[in-house]
């Protein structure tokens, strides 16, 4: 999910099925892979965005979005363009009332639910909580080849099916998010697995991608 859900997200946003399945949408620090006790007070959408908050100050700056995207394996051009798009879109939407604009285009994690876009799966509700029923509908409707995964074509079908009439911005964000997720996280057979997608919704996939990339660098050195 590139753009908005990688930090909405682009976000972007991971294998904690137990946390994501809870009706109240909460998760423990041992499940999200961050080790941060603050995560117990976060919704899954906030946890998703928190990966990009590299210094854990409650905000995601333009630089931090870039660093986060590089950490999960995005190229320099994609990270540069993605960070401008994400922060340019979400910073004004999440900025608290009375707060002045900043050149660093910070995204305020406490208000990340205000940046939720249309034409998506609705697996987050309006407060940023995970909705298991909506998530399961993705696979009931579109997973025709493998009931627990999506192919590239099935992903395209889902994006078309989720498009809201009259919505021009939402489909662009959704397309970017899901295509980036597919490129980063598909398996060797070209399937985007259900567990992988589920992990996006609390950000734990991002930590796994970062760890895998770090391990790969160590092996190559």
Can you offer a commentary on this structure?
- Pfam families: Caleosin.
- Keywords: Signal.
- InterPro entries: Caleosin-related (IPR007736), EF-hand-dom_pair (IPR011992), EF_hand_dom (IPR002048).
- Residues 1-21 form the signal peptide.
- Belongs to the caleosin family.
- This protein is mainly α.
- The chain is built from 11 helices and 4 strands; from the N terminus they run H-H-H-H-E-H-H-E-H-E-H-H-E-H-H.
- The strands form 2 sheets. A two-stranded antiparallel ribbon has the order 1-2. Strands 3-4 form a two-stranded antiparallel ribbon.
- Helix 5 (62-71) packs across helix 6 (76-94) and helix 8 (152-162) runs antiparallel to helix 9.
- The two termini are 30 Å apart.
- The relative contact order is 0.20.
């Amino acid at each position: 999910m590139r753009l908005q859900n990688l930090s909405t997200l682009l976000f972007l946003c991971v294998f904690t099925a137990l946390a994501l399945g809870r009706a109240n949408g909460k998760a423990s620090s041992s499940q999200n892979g961050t080790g941060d006790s603050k995560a117990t007070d976060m919704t899954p959408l906030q946890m998703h965005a928190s990966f990009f908050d590299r210094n854990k100050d409650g905000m995601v700056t333009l630089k931090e979005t870039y660093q986060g995207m590089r950490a999960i394996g995005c190229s320099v051009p994609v990270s540069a363009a993605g960070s401008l798009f994400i922060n340019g879109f979400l910073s004004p939407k999440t900025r608290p009332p009375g707060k002045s604009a900043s050149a660093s285009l910070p995204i305020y994690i406490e208000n990340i639910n205000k940046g939720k876009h249309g034409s998506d799966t609705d697996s987050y509700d309006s407060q940023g909580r995970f909705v298991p029923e909506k998530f399961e509908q993705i696979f009931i409707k579109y997973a025709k080849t493998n009931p627990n995964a999506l192919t590239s074509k099935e992903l395209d079908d889902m994006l078309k099916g989720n498009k809201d009439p009259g919505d021009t911005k939402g489909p662009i964000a959704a397309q970017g998010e899901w295509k980036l997720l597919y490129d980063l996280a598909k398996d060797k057979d070209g399937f985007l697995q259900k567990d992988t997608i589920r992990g996006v919704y609390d950000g734990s996939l991002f930590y796994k991608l970062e760890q895998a990339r770090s391990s790969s660098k160590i092996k190559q050195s």
